[in-house]
Write a structure and sequence with these properties.
Helices cover about 35% and strands about 25% of the residues. It is an alpha/beta fold. An 8-stranded mixed sheet has the order 1-2-4-3-5-16-6-15, with helices on both faces. It has a 4-stranded antiparallel sheet with strand order 10-12-8-13, covered by helices on one side.
Length: about 400
Amino acid sequence: MKSLIQQLAAKYQDDCVAIRHHLHAHPELSFEEHETSRFIQEKLKEWGISFQVMAGTGVVGWIEGTDPLSRITALRADMDALPIQEENDVEYRSLKPGVMHACGHDVHTTCLLGAARILQETRDQWRGSVKLIFQPGEEKNPGGASIMIREGVLDNPAPQRIFGMHVHPLLPSGTFSFRGGKVMASADEIYITVKVKGGHAAAPHLSADSILIASQIVLSLQQIVSRNNNPLNPTVLSITSIQGGNTTNVIPSEVKMMGTLRAMDETWRFKAHQLIKDQVETIAAALGGKAEVHIDIGYPFVLNNEDLTEWAKRKAAALMGEEKVEETELRMGAEDFAFYSHRIPACFFRLGVGTESINSNVHTPTFNIDEQAIQHGVAMMAWLAIAED
């Protein structure tokens, strides 16, 4: 099967590149992936793969091999794009102003479609069943994964394991990386509003200073991590936006701030939420104002099952060669694949798509990939779904 999968991945490479070009040229934002969903459904119909629609635009396919209930594996790909204006000068560049597949979700969807085609074509040669999860809304809270889980994507029948793949432009093309245990951080959005009476900038004694309060809050919040968190427990707390005032001689009555909290421990994560609220409110009150804090709870940390990840790493080496398999670094980025990983054994791994000339990182207007990596991503997804112990 290993050789056959590689042969078919190579055979369908040009078709997969064409699929990727179509998806890249027609990006859609989170939970708006209507054209993408229809395109996926059309491909699955073309290949005779049964499916259902979930979470609005999500698509869940089902392929049965021999002895279909003996083992059920889920493969997941996200579909949504980002609100970024593409700057690449390529024939398949985004046709939608201000929207771009800058995180490689077009590649993920392409690779899962390619793997689905191979699995369907070879279904009489492998054991078990495969759930194909084409998921919306990875880039936006509450995360499409949480919605699909709520609607039963991990039930009826329940998969025993799930794999997800993400492109990595700083990893050499065709290389894969794996890491067991905690691999990516939780992500929560912080919204703070400072409110005061406001007044004339030349008479600060007659009002509280919202800008000063906001400044003190920003500086003070850094101590929550440095003085309350175990230094060995990775955490990031960043305030990324301060908006208040519009002229030189007025102390504004309101200042709004936004930021993010990233953590690798759920107990500490929610303790930090309370510390943030208490500290912000106390500082504002001490300086004569008020503060409102809202924390939009996002994704938990990604937890790769140690045994499954080690198994997948061995199978990846068998498929690609030891030299093409590396260890993934710990990352403070977030992924809603985390929701799956806290429910069933999961493995989230990376596909290298970079070269010396193709190396713009994800979430940038010049992000692109070496498309030779697509056939390797297709082969790996198919292989991990059906490889025997």
